């Protein structure tokens, strides 16, 4: 297997494994701190926005021109908008909210509770499928970023990893409530993350080993569009809901500053042959 594919596969495994971290939030504490998750989402949103606009889209425009760079960028936006329309990002509901429903007089009785548990389990399974389909284009993004250079691949994997932690919570929370099984909750959340390296493997063998530089830059611009849409459409609203608007915005700018610093220090620390 090509070394570029191996690097991309390793990075995507890190991103996919972050859903397992989200599952650990649940099984170690069934009522996870949503404010912390919101701040993580805001921080990851800052990373993603920096990558999208200051790196991928910027380089595409400089390399292939303003018009072509923008066409590729918005092609990526439209692609992920279609994906999000058919597979919306799940809403995270704390276990405490779900449990409170059984305290009302209208929902008394074991039969109703069993039915409710089945409904919650079904929602967890649907959420896992949806997240798996969401993770597939993220794996594609990591692969294409790794083709451009280690710096781009590493930073994309870092941002996606932070984004995947709340996704793991969204899968594990309803499954744990419905089954009372920590293993089942952890297993399903982890499996949903495996779609990311699967995306790398499939795309690695669909694309030719040596792409035309102009097409590669265009594809990276499209990845920038995918990341920008994912951030503004899904990550920021969740960050606002969980952490509050003011705190989330601070986390976004902290993420952007962290990304700028990491780009600089990674660039000066890498050998010239590995640098962009």
UniProtKB/TrEMBL annotation:
Localization per record: Membrane
Membrane topology classification: Multi-pass membrane protein
Keyword Membrane in record: yes
GO CC, alphabetical: membrane
GO molecular function annotation: zinc ion transmembrane transporter activity
Assigned keywords, A-Z: Membrane, Transmembrane, Transmembrane helix
Membrane-crossing residue ranges in chain numbering: 6-29, 36-57, 69-87, 120-136, 156-176, 188-207, 219-236, 248-266
The protein, known as: Zinc transporter ZTP29
Organism whose genome encodes this protein: Carpinus fangiana
């Amino acid at each position: 297997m090509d070394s570029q594919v191996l690097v991309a596969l390793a990075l995507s495994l890190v991103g996919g494994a972050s859903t397992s971290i989200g599952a650990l939030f649940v099984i170690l504490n069934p009522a996870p701190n949503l404010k912390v998750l919101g701040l993580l989402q805001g921080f990851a949103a800052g990373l993603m926005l920096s990558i999208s606009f200051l790196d991928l889209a910027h380089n595409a425009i400089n390399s292939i021109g303003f018009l072509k760079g923008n066409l590729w960028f918005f092609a990526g936006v439209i692609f992920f908008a279609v994906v999000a329309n058919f597979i919306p990002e799940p809403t995270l509901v704390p276990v405490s909210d779900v449990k409170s429903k059984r305290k009302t007089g209208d929902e008394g009785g074991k039969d109703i509770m069993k039915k409710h548990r089945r409904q919650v389990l079904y929602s967890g399974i649907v959420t896992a499928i949806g997240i798996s389909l969401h993770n597939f284009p993220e794996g594609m993004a990591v692969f294409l970023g790794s083709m451009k250079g280690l710096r781009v691949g590493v930073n994309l994997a870092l941002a996606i990893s932070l984004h995947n932690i709340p996704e793991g919570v969204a899968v594990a929370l309803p499954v744990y409530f419905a089954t009372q099984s920590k293993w089942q909750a952890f297993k399903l959340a982890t499996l949903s993350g495996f779609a990311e390296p699967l995306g790398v493997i499939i795309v690695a063998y669909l694309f030719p080993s040596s792409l035309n530089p102009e097409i590669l830059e265009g594809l990276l611009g499209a990845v920038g569009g995918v990341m920008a849409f994912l951030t503004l459409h899904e990550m920021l609203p969740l960050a606002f809901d969980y952490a509050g608007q003011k705190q989330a915005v601070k986390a976004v700018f902290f993420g952007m500053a962290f990304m700028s610093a990491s780009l600089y220090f990674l660039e000066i620390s890498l050998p010239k042959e590995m640098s962009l």
